[in-house]
């Protein structure tokens, strides 16, 4: 994971922390957990962070499935990576963890925000399921003083940047930085997979002190009514996608259309990431013999498991790839 990410809505991923834990049903087939369990042996990148655990489904049937151990690992050598990327990028922060995962200390979050604050040329895309902690963290910005941890870390990193890149960072910059909070290059988002998780996390996201707030409704496991007309604050961006990989669950096209229509109505940039493994027959981009392909139903709609590589990102004849301004 790094520069040139394969994730459709970002350019690069930055992972100064590894390790996480499940929160809700959307975590069941997490790609990060699966990758960590695959490379968890001695000396491997995710040693001790995930395991293959035997899960009993009935007395005579069990499977081995990936599970986070709950541990985290800090990668100090990755902390300054965004400084090395000279051209502007959209950077997904912590694709192999959750920046607001409870065991991650505030001092480490401060360190990461300091880097983001000083890399003004990049846009940083933070995504969490721990939205309450993110809300509390950003709202504490209004009470910071130059002696507080985050401001001190920005100052220290500015000194490092000045020494390594030959840039001049004057002391008034830090006062300006506090006055300019929230910073326009830090996008703070929440993930939700169904109505229950959307409703539970919505108020905290709306109250998050950020220039850009956004939703990742992926994997979309059920219909979500956004109720945007009742929102205290409209999101600046919404991403929607189906589930891919082993154990993927199907997504109904009407769930996506309803969210898309709400975004259009309220002038919110909409990004359709993927259909996932399962798709309705009219969305398949290549011909195939359906008699040999697994099929299922989402409501009354029949869907086929053709694999992500055989689907498009097209919804009703259009590739929705909109971003916040």
Which properties best describe this structure?
325 residues; alpha/beta; 3 domains; seven-stranded parallel sheet; three-stranded antiparallel sheet; 8 helices; 26% helix; globular
How would you characterize this protein structure?
The structure is a single chain. The protein folds into three domains: 1-15 and 74-191 and 202-217, no CATH class; 20-71, no CATH class; 222-324, no CATH class. It has helices at 31-38, 81-84, 106-118, 131-139, 149-165, 172-179, 195-206, 253-265, and strands spanning 12-14, 17-18, 50-58, 61-68, 73-74, 90-93, 123-128, 186-191, 212-217, 237-241, 270-274, 278-279, 295-298, 301-305, 314-315, 318-319. The chain has a seven-stranded parallel beta sheet. A three-stranded antiparallel beta sheet has the order 12-14-13, with no helix packed on it. A two-stranded antiparallel sheet has the order 2-5. Helix 3 (106-118) links the parallel strand 6 (90-93) and strand 7. By secondary structure, the protein is α/β, with parallel strands linked by helices. Helix 3 (106-118) crosses helix 5 (149-165) and helix 4 packs parallel to helix 7. The model is unreliable at 169-173 (pLDDT under 50). The protein has eight helices and 16 strands. Helices cover 26% and strands 22% of the residues.
